[in-house]
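Hypothesis: this fold can be encoded by more than one sequence.
Test: take the structure tokens below, design a sequence, compare later.
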């Protein structure tokens, strides 16, 4: 496209210039620290080339937390801009770029990595497996996600950010109205990351169907494993649609085709349909695993078996089906027929029924329970009323006639955040506090956790509740400024103050991680929550082979009943056998790097160079085809020594519980 070298870096904005300096200094600091402490080999051997599902899960979580910071900064910048009328903190173009990247990062590079990270860590343990079905594919999934995230994120300092909104509607996202390369970052970066997510979905479908331990029938699986299974099916059904849409977008922008270009005979509504055929199931891709985590956590801290287990499973399946049948409600106002709007109004409101079933099951699980108000449980309790607000306002928006009034206002923005933050972020926080000791061998500080809880909850409601009233009063979304005469100023300022409190809550989480890593007790046993599922039947942190002997399951809440009925059989040294495990591999990270380089060149429309770089992808695939490394065996002596250490017993192991 003939971009000039002096246009390669984004210049002229002091905020972006400061970011460029910060990125350079951070990169230099990381390299210097790794060199000074001689950690390069450790990093390469233990993390960058690992295929261990637990370490891959932790890396996903790390990426999600980093992206949370980036997306949160974007959100605060938007709130700073709209805090007062006719503000000039951000100009219109910069504001468009900020709210575009905020939406994409929060959904695809915060919610997805955090959830997939927790799925990676916990689900194989919950079903009694030693790893996922395809360990190298799992590592490749992570590195493609990371590569796509980094490619998308560098856009604001190199080349320019996408600016057509997180939905990237055509014709606005086409070359006619967005001639720069910003939206190329959207098209290519999301394709790479989406390929990684699709691989994850396939991997977990196979893992859950084929690798459950003896006695672990589908109807004995923990609810988080069930929701992961259904989510993975939705991923395999919906992500190919988005991949095709992004490929067509790339062809339009890079190669001059006209799939979506109205002036060239294309159909702009084709993009809207393809996008939301993926986009609405994506809401349930992030919400359903969160529901599963809440189910396991509420059951643990209510000290009761989950109420209505079979109805919970049925509601998950019903939600997954309906999630593919409601996409048109996202464009009621774009000229659909009354019949089409009526049909999709019905399917949209119908999805509230299985969701309501789940809410009542959680409430009945807590009824007459001996509830322990730990930090994970507090997040679970806060989820219920705040998520219901999002659900009720969703039913309002689901009515086509009413949606004509709500659709282009801040009311919709408030609804969306009341669904995704309580419905996804709250359960993620609950899951992080819940599984943190199993990941790292120490618990996050409960006192600081309570500060995190209250600051984030107060900040969230103060940020987004005023937006319902602003929307009903006519405040439109996507507007970077407004006049004093509108009267929006006081509530906009209140919302901006709320975003600062919200950010303070996230800062409390980050401080909690730092404080707990330095000061928390390490001798916490393998089951600090007195939990119910199999992941707590292992060491803390979990040994690399997961289980010395594969457990046998006889019912729901397997570990709970093993403890209660004293059914845990002693593990004798003579019964220990060698364990086969997959070897680490450099191929996944290599593929991620090559995908990133090829994608970067394609973004700048240097197609020949991108094609040459893409040959490296095929080289990696060919090398993998001739890789005959079948893994390694963990010797009996190592297993016996490891098991003795965490069980704190002498010769022979008599108990799973410290």
């Amino acid at each position: 496209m003939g971009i000039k070298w002096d246009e390669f870096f984004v210049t002229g904005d002091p905020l972006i210039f400061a970011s460029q300096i910060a990125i350079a200094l951070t990169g230099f600091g990381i390299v210097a620290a790794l060199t000074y402490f001689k950690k390069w080999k450790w990093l390469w051997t233990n993390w960058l080339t690992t295929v261990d599902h637990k370490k891959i899960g932790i890396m996903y979580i790390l990426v999600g937390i980093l992206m949370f910071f980036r997306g949160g900064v974007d959100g605060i910048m938007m709130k700073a801009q709209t805090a007062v009328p006719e503000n000039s903190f951000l100009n219109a173009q910069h504001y468009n770029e900020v709210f575009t990247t905020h939406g994409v990062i929060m959904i695809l590079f915060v919610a997805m990595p955090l959830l997939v990270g927790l799925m990676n860590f916990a689900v194989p343990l919950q079903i009694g497996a030693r790893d996922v079905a395809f360990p190298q594919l799992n590592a490749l999934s992570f590195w493609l996600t990371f590569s796509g995230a980094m490619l998308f994120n560098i856009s604001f300092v190199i080349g320019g950010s996408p600016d057509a909104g997180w939905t990237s509607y055509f014709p606005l996202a086409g070359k006619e109205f967005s001639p720069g390369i910003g939206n190329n970052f959207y098209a290519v970066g999301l394709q790479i990351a989406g390929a990684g997510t699709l691989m994850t979905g396939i991997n977990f479908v196979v893992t859950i169907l084929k690798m459950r331990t003896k006695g672990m029938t589908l109807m004995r699986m923990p609810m988080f494993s069930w929701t992961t299974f259904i989510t993975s099916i939705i991923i395999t059904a919906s992500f190919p649609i988005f991949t095709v849409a992004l490929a067509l977008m790339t062809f339009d922008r890079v190669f001059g085709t006209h799939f979506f270009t109205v002036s060239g005979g294309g159909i702009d509504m084709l993009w809207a349909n393809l996008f939301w055929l993926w986009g609405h199931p994506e809401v349930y891709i992030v919400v359903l695993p969160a529901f599963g985590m809440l189910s396991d956590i509420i059951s643990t801290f209510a000290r009761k078996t989950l109420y209505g287990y079979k109805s919970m499973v049925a509601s998950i399946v019903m939600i997954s089906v309906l999630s593919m049948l409601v996409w048109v409600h996202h464009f009621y106002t774009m000229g659909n027929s009354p019949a089409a709007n009526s049909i999709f109004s019905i399917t949209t409101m119908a999805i509230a029924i299985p969701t309501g079933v789940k809410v009542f099951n959680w409430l009945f699980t807590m009824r007459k329970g001996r509830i322990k108000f730990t930090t994970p449980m507090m997040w679970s309790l806060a989820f219920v009323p705040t998520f219901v607000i999002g659900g009720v306002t969703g039913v309002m928006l689901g009515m086509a006639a009413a949606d004509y009034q709500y659709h282009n206002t801040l009311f919709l923005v408030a609804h969306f955040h009341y669904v995704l933050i309580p419905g996804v972020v709250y359960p993620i926080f609950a899951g992080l506090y819940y599984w943190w000791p199993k990941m790292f061998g120490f618990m996050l500080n409960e006192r600081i956790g309570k500060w995190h809880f209250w600051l984030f909850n107060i900040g969230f409601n103060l940020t987004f509740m005023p937006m319902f009233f602003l929307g009903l009063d006519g405040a439109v979304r996507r507007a970077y400024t407004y006049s004093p005469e509108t009267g929006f100023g006081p509530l906009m300022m209140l919302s901006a103050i709320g975003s600062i409190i919200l950010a303070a809550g996230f800062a409390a989480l980050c401080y909690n991680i730092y404080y707990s890593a330095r000061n928390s007790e390490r001798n916490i046993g393998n089951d600090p929550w007195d939990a119910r599922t199999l992941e707590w039947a292992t060491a803390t942190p979990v040994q690399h082979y997961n289980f010395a002997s594969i457990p046998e399951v006889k019912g729901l809440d397997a570990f709970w009943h093993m403890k209660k009925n004293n059914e845990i059989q002693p593990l004798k040294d003579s019964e220990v056998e060698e364990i086969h495990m997959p070897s680490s591999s450099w191929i996944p990270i290599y593929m991620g790097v090559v995908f990133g380089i090829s994608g970067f060149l394609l973004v700048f429309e240097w197609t020949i160079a991108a094609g040459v770089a893409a040959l490296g992808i095929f080289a990696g695939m060919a090398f993998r085809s001739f890789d005959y490394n079948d893994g390694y065996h963990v010797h009996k002596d190592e297993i016996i020594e490891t098991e003795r250490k965490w069980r704190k017993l002498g010769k022979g192991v008599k108990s799973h519980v410290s």
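Residues 152 and 189 are 5 Å apart (CA to CA). The two ends are 64 Å apart (CA to CA).
Hypothesis status: open.
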